[in-house]
Write a structure and sequence with these properties.
InterPro entries: C-type_lectin-like, C-type_lectin-like/link_sf, CTDL_fold. This is C-type lectin domain-containing protein. This protein starts with 10 loop residues before the first helix and ends in a 10-residue tail after the last strand. By secondary structure, the protein is α+β, with helices and mostly antiparallel strands. The chain has one domain: Mannose-Binding Protein A, Chain A, CATH 3.10.100. It contains three helices and ten strands. The model is unreliable at about 190-215 and about 220-228 (pLDDT under 50). Strands 1, 2, 3, 9 and 10 form a five-stranded antiparallel β-sheet that branches. The chain has a five-stranded antiparallel β-sheet with strand order 6-5-4-7-8, with no helix packed on it. The radius of gyration is 18 Å and the shape is globular.
Length: about 230
């Protein structure tokens, strides 16, 4: 909900901000849109990132890094990049609806240079950065090629204080859950309309060798619309 008053000294600034918010939305209603409270402005801010939790069974020959691209013909769907504490808190709120999921995979992985990197929408890589959330006893020096966020409290218990921490692991798992991240629609990207292709810089194709036996999409129930 946006409340603008024409006599407000910041009316023009707030009006432009409102337009950017109205035109920034996830095309798939199952997605949760990244929404963070701006303490300096005292309002909720929507960002152009959409998240969807999926579980796949029987695809042990496929890397978890290809899990999101396998569920879509769109090349701009990638495993989630948890690059800030704010994103982590948002995802923790999201996953509270699914207490029986003990872990989920991130887009964090070691590249050919053995460096920890995230996947960007165009398939390029960017470095780990300053934010990390390693589990006790683990660090960037621990062995493993990919990273799973593992519940520190088990499943179904202590739901409202269930901390998922990072553990380096294999990139292959017979049954795995993953948060997929995609672009929201805004003035620059109108991919919500199926007849409009993504920008050329985001067009990329991955070769998938095999298909999962079963895929489950966990519908988002976060009422983020009430925050605006």
């Amino acid at each position: 909900m946006f409340n603008l008053v024409s006599t407000d000294k910041n009316f023009y600034e707030d009006f432009i901000w409102t337009l950017t918010q109205v035109n920034c939305a996830c095309g798939d209603p199952r997605n949760a849109q990244l929404t963070i409270f701006d303490t300096s402005k005292g309002r909720w801010q929507r960002y152009a990132e959409c998240y969807l939790l999926i579980t796949m069974e029987g695809f042990g020959s496929i890397s978890v890094l290809d899990m999101c691209s396998d569920m879509s013909n769109e090349s701009f769907v990638v495993p989630i990049a948890l690059t800030s504490r704010q994103k982590y808190v948002f995802i923790e709120e999201y996953i509270m609806d699914f207490p029986d999921i003990p872990k989920y995979y991130l887009g964090l992985h070691r590249n050919k240079q053995n460096q920890w990197v995230w996947l960007d929408y165009d398939g390029s890589e960017f470095p780990l950065g300053n934010y990390t959330h390693w589990a006790p006893g683990y660090s960037a020096n621990s062995p493993g090629q990919c990273v799973a966020a593992i519940s520190q409290n088990g499943t179904g218990s202590n739901l409202f204080n269930n901390d998922y921490r990072w553990v380096p692991t294999s990139c292959y798992s017979e049954n795995a859950s993953n948060f997929c991240q995609s672009l929201a629609c805004d003035a620059d990207y109108k991919g919500c309309q199926s007849d409009i292709p993504p920008p050329k810089k985001l067009q990329k194709r991955r070769k998938i060798k095999s298909r999962p036996k079963k895929r489950v999409i966990h519908k988002n129930t976060l009422k983020t619309a009430q925050k605006h």
